[in-house]
Amino acid sequence: MRYPRVITLALESEVPIPEGVKVEVDGSKIRVSGPKGTLEREFHSELIELSIEGGKVKVRTYGKRKFNRAYLGTVTAHIRNMMKGVTEGFRKEMVVVYAHFPIKVEVDKGRKIVKISNFLGEKLPRYASIVGDTEVRVEGDRIYIEGISKEDVGQTAANIRLATKIKKKDPRVFMDGIYVVR
């Protein structure tokens, strides 16, 4: 038998819905649609309640615990990022840096990987996976990563950076790699 929730303290946060964005709430699941695409996410149903009231998404939590307040802020930030993603999108720029061996970067959209060849003169290429519906473009020594999900864009950039991480050598001397510029 489940006991009814004891309401001790209700904390609330609001996220305004911008023009051209459609938001659907089903329990703890939220779906945000906009001109660039659709994002869907599910949150912990026992900690928060989601509702749409007066052109705003209301996020509500109950309880006095510090964790509940922190989770409320996290959910609010995720919803804000979803709305920004479907309207503006997210973008990261990376730069390819090498001292002696020119690094060649290719994108295989079919396999959703980034192939990094001739890194430090290695014979075998290194690979980094592309997460979600993120688009990766290579122009000269710059790599542009774009998408509607902030997490997917950031994880794709991290995968590329980690693929060129040099181990067991001094990073001040061996600075070859691919780095995030902005």
From TrEMBL:
GO biological process, one term: cytoplasmic translation
Every Large ribosomal subunit protein uL6 alpha-beta domain range: 17-89, 101-177
Pfam family membership, one: Ribosomal_L6
Cell inner membrane found in the keyword field: no
Gene Ontology cellular component annotations, sorted alphabetically: cytosolic large ribosomal subunit
Keyword rRNA-binding: yes
Keywords linked to the UniProt accession: Ribonucleoprotein, Ribosomal protein, RNA-binding, rRNA-binding
InterPro entries: Ribosomal_uL6-like, Ribosomal_uL6-like_a/b-dom_sf, Ribosomal_uL6_a/b-dom, Ribosomal_uL6_arc
Alphabetized GO MF terms: rRNA binding; structural constituent of ribosome
Assembly description: Part of the 50S ribosomal subunit.
Function in brief: This protein binds to the 23S rRNA, and is important in its secondary structure. It is located near the subunit interface in the base of the L7/L12 stalk, and near the tRNA binding site of the peptidyltransferase center.
Family: Belongs to the universal ribosomal protein uL6 family.
The protein's name in its UniProt record: Large ribosomal subunit protein uL6
Taxonomic lineage from the root: Archaea, Thermoproteota, Candidatus Korarchaeia, Candidatus Korarchaeales, Candidatus Korarchaeaceae
